[in-house]
Amino acid sequence: MRFSRQPIVVQRGQRKNKPHILFKLFMVIGTGLIIGFGANIIISSEMNIRKSFVRDNPVLSALDKLHRPALIDYEDEQGFTEEPDFVEIEKGEIPETLHTTEGTVQRGDSLYSILAAQGLSPLEIHGITTQLDGLFSTRSFRAGQKYSVARDDEGNFRRFTYHQSRSITLHVEWDVVSEEFHVSKEVQDYDTRTSNLTGIITSNLANELQRNGRYGLITQLENVLSWRIDFNRDIQPGSQYRIIFEEKWLNDQYVGVGNILATEITIRNNTYTAYRYQDPQGVVGYYDEKGDSMQRFFLNRPVNYSRVSSPYGYRVHPVYGTRHFHGGVDLVAPTGTPVYAVADGQVIFRGRKGPAGNMITLSHANGYHTQYLHLSRYAVNYGSRVRQGDIIGYVGATGVATGPHLDFRVIRNGRLQDPMQALASSSAAQSVASEHRNDFLAKRGMLRAQLDELDIQLASAER
């Protein structure tokens, strides 16, 4: 069967059976605009009416504050809903209020009896003594020694401090975030000795240092060489390392590692060498053979993190589900992970800051400020001067947070910067000043001779 198309003839004065498609489209768009405009007027009127009722009714006002995050744009930890034109840097300290009482160890007292008298359970005391193993001997707990106990405003135990000697102080501290006790020993006077390590990596560098009981060197090595070496990707089994460093000793007791004086790592025939040098003005840095800096103005990261959970810029808040501006970058890491100063600077703010939780602000050269939010604990005091790579606190989840992480922020001349871009684009630190070059070369020569001696030892061990 065949079909033929017949033309449709429209005579003058007749209408088509169907409206033109453009006419339909205009009708739909126009209707949508009218509905949207009307809805906007209704919503605005409703919001204004609700606000007037809320202002006049104390009960509604309380409920409005309670549910406000679900009704309006949520402010980020620093109070931003949109990218600000200028950021005011707050200075000062918001210290936690603790009430301290002092006492003296009496004959017959023990660490157990004193802690039990402060309300700690036998299980808690057992956990503390387990941490003390190798750090403190109970035989050092002697009558006549001073101690202090700190409690918060509610009378809860927060810290026990025992002064073992003029140079050694023992701290037992309750962390309200992790709900755990932390034990630490503070040593004021110690001897500094020079030591060295050399070897061939069989798995990774961290395991090598751990096996030699000097794991504390890994952070310094990463800070010194991180702009030249990717420690997770580049260092493979077979790589060689040589490290000359300081150790801290108290009589015959090892306390910890000090500064790295020189290091050299060889990876697939590529050698990376760094020397520590302090000029006559007290400026400290790490330099290569020519005196060029191995470091940059910023470290490449403020914490060893596993992933970025929230980037800088506009985002949907993980707790409230609202879209707003985020002035930092969230770096996920376990509670207690050390947080490092990304550059030399000074602590100009330390304290609890609402949704930001425990926060530290550092002031740096060139108009920079960096901020570290949601900390579980502090490692520096207000007003302290810090060097690049110093531990200033520990990762936590204080304030408003879904889990432990560091909210890291960079501000320059009052304007927020993308933190990851600021770190990545960091300029190289200054090389050794020309007037100190001969002094540097002389000290570098002595360290070079020591590294060469380690090369001989390593070659003998390989035979």
TrEMBL record:
One of its GO terms (molecular function) is metal ion binding. The chain crosses the membrane at residues 21-43. One of its GO terms (biological process) is proteolysis. It comes from the Bacteria. It holds the Pfam family Csd3_N2. It is found in: Cell envelope. Residues 101-149 form the LysM domain. Keywords: Hydrolase, Membrane, Metal-binding, Metalloprotease, Protease, Transmembrane, Transmembrane helix, Zinc. Its cofactor is Zn(2+). CDD domains: M23_peptidase. GO terms for cellular component: cell envelope. InterPro entries: Cell_wall_metabolism_enzyme, Csd3_N2, Dup_hybrid_motif, LysM, M23ase_b-sheet_dom. This is Peptidase M23. It comes from Desulfurispirillum indicum (strain ATCC BAA-1389 / DSM 22839 / S5).
